[in-house]
Amino acid sequence: MTAAVFFGCTFIAFGPAIALFLFTIAREPLRVIFLIAGAFFWLVSLLLSSLVWFISVQISNKESAAQQKGLLIFGVVLSVLLQETFRFAYYKLLKKANEGLLALSQEETMPISIRQLAYVSGLGFGFMSGAFSVVNILADSVGPGTVGIHGDSQHYFLSSAFMTMAIILLHMFWGVVFFDACEKQRWWAVAAVVISHLVVSCLTFQNPEYIASLVPTYVILFLMGIWAFYSAGGSLRNLKLCLTCKDKDFLLANHRPR
Amino acid sequence: MNASDTDDDSYNERSALVPAENPTVPSYSPEPDHTPPNSSPAKRPQVTRRAGPPAADGGSGSSDQDVDLEDEELTLKYGAKHVIMLFIPVTLCMIVVVATIKSVSFYSEKTDQRLIYTPFSENTSSVGRRLLNSVLNTIIMISVIVVMTILLVVLYKYRCYRFIQGWLILSSLMLLFWFSFMYLGEVFKTYNLAVDYPTVGVIIWNFGAVGMICIHWKGPLQLQQAYLILISALMALVFIKYLPEWSAWVILGAISVYDLVAVLSPKGPLRMLVETAQERNEPIFPALIYSSAMMWTVGMASPADAQQPGHETDEEAEQSNRWAEPERRQSRSLPEEELEEDRGVKLGLGDFIFYSVLVGKAAATGGDWNTTLACFVAILIGLCLTLLLLAIFKRALPALPISIAFGLVFYFSTDFLVQPFMDNLAAHQFYI
């Protein structure tokens, strides 16, 4: 049972992300590099928010559980804001490095478009975020134990896996929408991304009630997916052509705006 | 050890198996050693540094502007691809080390046995004493490494090639036979498999003999790469087991500083080694360098190229990745060699070893995967940055400092700051 839970939860949590990686990113060295750089940026943001949280915990009253929980909530909100700030910083860095990239690649034209960078960096953030959230839990699920023996929920592993999958995909969609909004200077869209991230994180505060946290998260995931699809240049026409394999070159490079 | 000087040779290379010692490439690792008990573990720093130079000449100093631009283009051209060609073996080595550490408890057990290079015990009661002991251990280890490097430089300068060759062969013999025997024994113990000695003998004999052939003579490229990754992993595991806790961290830091100094300072041993090799127009011992592709370019740089030692040296020195540079230059001087194929990159095994030691120690202490992941990403980003800096500055840059610095920072900060935060979040099932 433990191996089954381990493999099941791993594939639930990382399946879509790894499939995306293998089919779209693994063959392009530049994309892999930017994926890892995105993961690094997320890691740095986590580091800073943990630092602030740690300091606040040290100076607080360690006995009071309510205060600790409050500090944790503060830590979560701060972390979300820092993550989005680092996403913006990564965007700025990528814009600046455009010329350098031109030199680093083999073609005369831009080797990687800002949209691809948005996708790849979003996925990088997602991978790291998902990994940090769930890897320890997965490692524990291999070993012997009883889930929820002290009265907690029995669906801990499964709900963690589903939540992680949602978070990884959400990060990818947020990345696409965010970069696109920054390119077009649409700050309301940037704010919407930040707010939706905050909403998703705050939904998890209700966590043993998984209906209340997972279902809205998946709704938001679906909506963000549609938004990301449209902001990446997709449309119903494109989708139809792609699904019926009529348009060989449905990639953005050849997309004629209607 | 002699570079092939003619087109004929390169033609032959193409049809033959890839020789382990690439005649055109100067990758060299002055320190062959890998067996800590018997020789200096120094290989590492040297390897990286060594990487390069002989190749060719590095210097575009006196070349024309055109040549410079062309060089730059070609250099950067292979940048991203080469970064990935290094990411993969480094990742594989780390995966082998982490998988072993997590499953075979032998390598993460506390032991009082120590290497002769770290004689001071860390089992003392006070923190100050422990710190002092680890610093002393580090000083001894680094001095051994420095002495070995200088010895190697001297041997090389006085053309004692046979001696160096013998030293290299002895070290790889030890690694391929003795350490892999120990490793196999521990794996069998962990999984409770009863295996008889004749079977083990046959396995180890085959493994070791093929390894010696692949590494020191000729073999399929991927087999050679696999063996190099495996021996780096074995070496890293030995270090993880036998270096005391705090000493290991201080040694990692000190070796990065040493790497920095030895590569960038004008009197550094590595630099001298590289320059000597360049003057003689010879490749340095290629036995302990990981090579990611076949080198089909022709022999050493022409005399004209040899007058520009500084540039290449730097690049090579850095991590031996930059084979692209030397190859490029050579192809410049030999226009018929329009080999646009992948020239590949080379990385010294010492880099593999120390990166894996860092990640392995992160995996061994604490049992926490977040720290391991953080160190892994930090090291890869350090490697990427090093290559980027190399492409920008075109000077010798040591490979260890940036990666190890990032790795150490992320190890300690993740262990002390991020871990409690993530644990608390996971306990409440909050997601950020």
TrEMBL record, chain A:
Pfam family, one: Aph-1
Keyword Iron-sulfur: no
GO biological process, one term: protein processing
Assigned GO CC terms: gamma-secretase complex
Location(s) in or outside the cell: Membrane
Record-stated family: Belongs to the APH-1 family.
Quaternary assembly: Component of the gamma-secretase complex.
Name of the featured protein: Gamma-secretase subunit APH-1
TrEMBL record, chain B:
UniProt region (Disordered), positions on chain: 1-67, 303-339
Gene3D superfamilies: Presenilin
One MF annotation (Gene Ontology) recorded for this entry: aspartic endopeptidase activity, intramembrane cleaving
Record field: compositional bias (Acidic residues): 1-10
Primary site of residence: endoplasmic reticulum
Keywords: Endoplasmic reticulum, Golgi apparatus, Hydrolase, Membrane, Notch signaling pathway, Protease, Transmembrane, Transmembrane helix
Domain of life of the source: Eukaryota
InterPro entries named in the record: Peptidase_A22A, Preselin/SPP, Presenilin_C
EC number from the UniProt entry: 3.4.23.-
GO terms under cellular component: endoplasmic reticulum membrane; gamma-secretase complex; Golgi membrane
Cell location: Endoplasmic reticulum membrane; Golgi apparatus membrane
GO process terms (BP): amyloid-beta formation; calcium ion homeostasis; melanocyte differentiation; membrane protein ectodomain proteolysis; Notch signaling pathway; protein processing; somite development
First-level EC class: hydrolase
Membrane topology: Multi-pass membrane protein
Similarity comment: family membership: Belongs to the peptidase A22A family.
UniProt function note: Probable subunit of the gamma-secretase complex, an endoprotease complex that catalyzes the intramembrane cleavage of integral membrane proteins such as Notch receptors.
Binding partners and assembly: Homodimer.
Domain notes from UniProt: The PAL motif is required for normal active site conformation.
Name of this chain's protein: Presenilin
Annotated source species: Xyrichtys novacula (Pearly razorfish)
